[in-house]
# Entry
Amino acid sequence: MDKTTKVFDGNEKIIVRAVTQVVKEKGFGQAKVEKVGEDQSRLVTEYVPQGDWRTRIEVTVKKINRKESEVTLSVITEQKDSGPSGWKAIKLLGKEQYEKIFNEIEMQIYREWAKGE
# Structure
């Protein structure tokens, strides 16, 4: 499973709201958010099927300090397969695609700041 990490300025709550909005805009529906420890949240979307493929997004938001949070993003794409689970993970996204998603998250963080707490 591929994952990429980036540090953003902002508290965990604002960043979770921003990530939730971005994945919703990308057509993944409402992400399920769960607290994983005191300073960490995990967001998981449902699989979005497209023919013989399905994709979902997993994000971990971890508080580093009062002003920064670490975001770990993983886009999981699977193709129908004859194996036991019926699906096989395929790496489709490269560094540029992850950077593009991180840029969208960063812009959404600014929008969330503008809305206020």
